[in-house]
């Protein structure tokens, strides 16, 4: 090759590489390089959208955050314990069986214009609202948006998706290296004090939001259900039809029809629509506590509308995309038979 042509091509390649590096520097960010026995994965961490979750991930990765497992980098030699083709690969449990964690939990960071809409999304695994610890997963397919209301997204794979797709159960994280580009990324502090401070702020915000939501629902009940009585447990009820049979007791087997509604009037479940009454053994824990309290107060043949407070329903848990955390739930109940 002509040496002038070679030099020209070399200069073009050099300019191209410099341009890519400058683009990365201009964009900046915090990145995690996950080294596995199958290859390397590079993740962009969304430290501005999910600061608490990213702080947790970096702190554990670098052995900064106090936890009940180790004072060394937390994820070293941790396996991918859960792999579901077309869904997720999951890791972060030092026990390797899916039940372990760092000995603490922290609140969700949801609703921040982040979505599980493409493969490669990195998100926290949990056992319910605000139970994040160390386990996380990477999505293997697009359009898993139903996870958006349940799991905190904190990053996305930008290199090595082919490695992610080749991971099998039992494959291992060897180490994780964190890199920062730009002044904003460099200024993002990760230590025990900052983590505790932000966690406390989030918990206070969630408590305030929960209290406001409960107050709003109680105001709605006082306006829209003025003919309801309230028992000592905080359950509102109205007897629509008196029963004339036996009363239930613990251990009784009841045949019950019901319809469940939000206070907005939206129906979320109905045995009547299915033409399929349910069998309830009182005291077995088969139904929510508010149901058991009311069923023990009813007579065979009675029809009653009840409104159960969150503490006797699902509490701080959300159920699917329909029932929000801290929701009062209304039920029309027919106690058809006591066996």
TrEMBL record:
Keyword Translocase: no
Record Pfam families: FKBP_C (PF00254), Pro_isomerase (PF00160)
Broad enzyme group: isomerase
Alphabetized GO MF terms: peptidyl-prolyl cis-trans isomerase activity
Domain PPIase cyclophilin-type: 39-169
InterPro entries: Cyclophilin-like_dom_sf, Cyclophilin-type_PPIase_CS, Cyclophilin-type_PPIase_dom, Cyclophilin_A-like, PPIase_dom_sf, PPIase_FKBP_dom
EC number: 5.2.1.8
CDD domains in UniProt: cyclophilin
Domain named PPIase FKBP-type: residues: 251-339
Reactions catalysed: [protein]-peptidylproline (omega=180) = [protein]-peptidylproline (omega=0)
A biological-process GO annotation: protein folding
Assigned protein family: Belongs to the cyclophilin-type PPIase family.
Name of the protein in its database record: peptidylprolyl isomerase
